[in-house]
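Input/output pair, single chain:
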Amino acid sequence: MGEKFMDIAFQNDILKAMICRLINAGRNPNIETINYIYCGTTDPSPARRFMIDTCIWTNRGCLEDIENPAVQLHEDLVRDLLKASMALPKPLSPETPWDLGASNYFKQILRK
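Output:
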């Protein structure tokens, strides 16, 4: 909804809640949730980037049951996962991208 109304403050609040839930509760989004976020956002979206980061850094298991990515995953999700996996540092850092700064996912509010 925040993307449709272009409400940056609302988008940032939702992302804060998502990051907080991941860090504090130790929960990871399932593939249905990730697909849902991809269907409701546009490219580029910080929420999409956060979903990709969770898949790559802490939640690779959500992809284990995917037999046909072209059918089961949002088209942009397949592309983003491929790009992210090609750009991975070796070895993975023990710090996740959101540990280094959750604000990297937030859009800047332009004030006049």
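The chain has seven helices and no strands. The chain has one domain: 2-102.
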